[in-house]
Task: structure prediction
Amino acid sequence: MVMRQFSLAVSIALLSWSAAQAQPFPTGVAAKGQALHAAKCVSCHNSMMPDGKGEELYSEFSRKMTNATQLKGMVEFCANRTRSGWFEEEIAHVSRYLNDSFYKYTK
Ligand code: HEC
Result:
């Protein structure tokens, strides 16, 4: 019994540890990403969608991304195309924001 409780405690500790490790954009700040995204990204995505809701691109049903590496690559691609002048820092903020809000990838 004591042993079972102990191993339960160990599993919980391990689980929360791996949840903490499973953040693919640890340097990104979601609030900063949200502001950058609103400034540079939203209007074009909105204009692409028949109902004007650009964030539907990110939904499970329409997304083409399958992991955090692809997500970051697409953020970079779109950011470069718009000549946003973003550096690694801004890419991380926006990737973090999109991942926290929509994609929820752990890697
Ligand atoms: C000039 C228009 C335009 C702008 C501005 C733009 N995008 Fe995009 N974005 C697109 C298009 C078009 C696609 C869809 C490509 C496809 O589905 O093949 C897309 C797709 C994406 C996707 C992938 C969606 C998915 O899961 O399949 C991400 C992520 C993304 N954009 C991020 C950004 C970010 C971040 C910015 C701001 C820097 C941005 N975009 C600005 C046109 C734009």
In short: DSSP finds five helices and no strands in the chain.
